[in-house]
Amino acid sequence: MTPHTDAKPTATPPLPGRPCSIAAALHVLGEKWALLAVRELFYGNHRFDRIARNTGAPRDRLTARLRALEEAGVVDRRAYSERPPRYEYHLTEAGRDLAPLTQALLAWGDRWLSPEPPVVLRHHPHHDDPGHPDHPLDAAWTCRTCGTEVRSPDLTLEVRSPHWDRHGPTTPGGDATTAP
Questions:
Q1: DSSP conformation class of 86
Q2: C-alpha angle 56-60-64 in degrees, rounded to nearest 5
Q3: Closest CA to 34 of 87, 94, 122
Q4: Mean pLDDT for the chain?
Q5: Among candidates 126, 124, 121, 125, which has minimal Cα distance to 136?
Q6: pLDDT band at 8, cuts 50/70/90?
Q7: Which domains does the chain have, with CATH numbers?
Q8: Using CA atoms, how far apart are residues 179 and 160, in angstroms rounded to an integer?
Q9: Over the stretch 125-168, which tens digit does the pLDDT of each residue have?
């Protein structure tokens, strides 16, 4: 069992194509059972049987995904029974930081794929203040520096990887199969 840690995990191995944090994230999270397991942990389901039932994942595939998420520092496995040995899974800080991603996928699916949202996230801004009741979450992407809502047309790309620009490798015969 890996000890509980919220330390930043080690870098992913070099991946083919453009050096990119999206590619690195998808290397860890890009298979649907991984993200559905994370969803269940956000919903408060920490035991393997519940995660398996609620995702529909084959048990062997789910075991492999949870192990990979643990190795990547996204989940922490904690014993809750010694006889027989049984474990619960909990999100680490890295896993909890996936909340905006899961919310964005939920909102996109609600908008483009579901005739009626199957679940609704509710925001509780002030738990003890009756003047601020809970309500369905309508999240926005906001810049922490200037405080304004971010829209795609307002963004530009600054490429920092050596020998790459937004179009691809910049060196003649550039090697697009390695990442730093």
A1: E
A2: 100
A3: 94
A4: 89
A5: 121
A6: low
A7: 21-154 (1.10.10.10)
A8: 12
A9: 877 778 888 899 888 999 999 999 999 999 999 999 999 999 99
Q: How many helices (H) and strands (E) does the chain have?
A: 6, 6
Q: DSSP of 18-52, one letter per residue?
A: S--HHHHHHHHH-SHHHHHHHHHHHTT--BHHHHH
Residues in the chain: 180
The answer to whether 16 touches 176, Cβ cutoff 8 Å, is: yes
Q: State the DSSP H helix or E strand holding residue 112, giving kind and residue range, or none if neither.
A: helix 99-112
Q: How far apart are the C-alpha atoms of 69 and 149, rounded to whole Å?
A: 32
Token digits for 52?
């398996």
Please report, as a single letter, which amino acid is at residue 7: A
Q: Which residues contact 103 (CB under 8 A, 6 or more apart)?
A: 121, 137, 139
Residues pairing with 81 in the sheet: 86
- Name the residue among 125, 129, 154 with its Cα closest to residue 138: 125
CA distances for 153 relative to 5, 41, 139, 143, angstroms: 38, 34, 18, 14
Sign of CA dihedral 66, 71, 72, 75: positive
Q: Residue 148 is which amino acid?
A: T
Tens digits of residue pLDDT in 34-89:
999 999 999 999 999 999 999 999 999 999 999 999 999 999 999 999 999 999 99
Amino acid at residue number 54: N
